[in-house]
Amino acid sequence: MMEQEQPKQKAIIVGVQLKKGSDFEYAMMELRNLADACFIEVVDELSQKADRINSSHYIGTGKIQELRALMEA
Q1: DSSP state for residue 5 in the 8-state scheme
Q2: DSSP assigned state of 3
Q3: What is the model's pLDDT at position 11?
Q4: Which of 48, 45, 43 lies closest to 28, judged by CA?
Q5: What residues in the chain have per-residue pLDDT under 50?
Q6: CA angle 42-40-19, nearest 5°?
Q7: Integer Cα distance of 16 and 50 in angstroms
Q8: Contact (CB, 8 A) for 16 and 53
Q9: How far apart are the two ends of the chain, measured CA to CA in Å?
Q10: Which residues of 4-41 are buried (b: 16+ CB within 10 A; e: fewer)?
Q11: What is the 3-class SS of 12-71, one letter each residue?
Q12: What is the Cα–Cα distance from 16 to 7, expressed in whole angstroms?
């Protein structure tokens, strides 16, 4: 009996590039690698430059709307 392959989960990677941080590209690469290791297909990426992390949603409300549009596409 052959096992049926499960459909791959999909994800949009989201990151905030802090002005005082210097390893943003490395962190995004690590997120892509982590997703790959978990058999998650990265279908898009979204990033935002900011002075600090938005404490309520991590990213700003404009980026949340952009993320929503990406998810609906």
Answers
A1: P
A2: P
A3: 95
A4: 45
A5: none
A6: 45
A7: 7
A8: yes
A9: 37
A10: eeeeeeebebbbbeeeeeeeeeeebeebeeebeeeeee
A11: EEEEEEECCCCCHHHHHHHHHHHHHHCCEEEEEEEEEEECCCECCCECCHHHHHHHHHHH
A12: 29
Q: What is the rounded distance in angstroms from the CA atom of residue 4 to the CA atom of residue 7?
A: 9
Q: What percent of the chain has pLDDT over 70?
A: 90
Q: Is 7 helix (H, G, I), strand (E, B) or coil?
A: coil
The reported pTM is 0.75
Q: Where are the domains of the chain?
A: 9-72
Amino acid occupying residue 51: D
Amino acid at 8: K
Q: Which residue shows structure tokens 């998650």?
A: 40
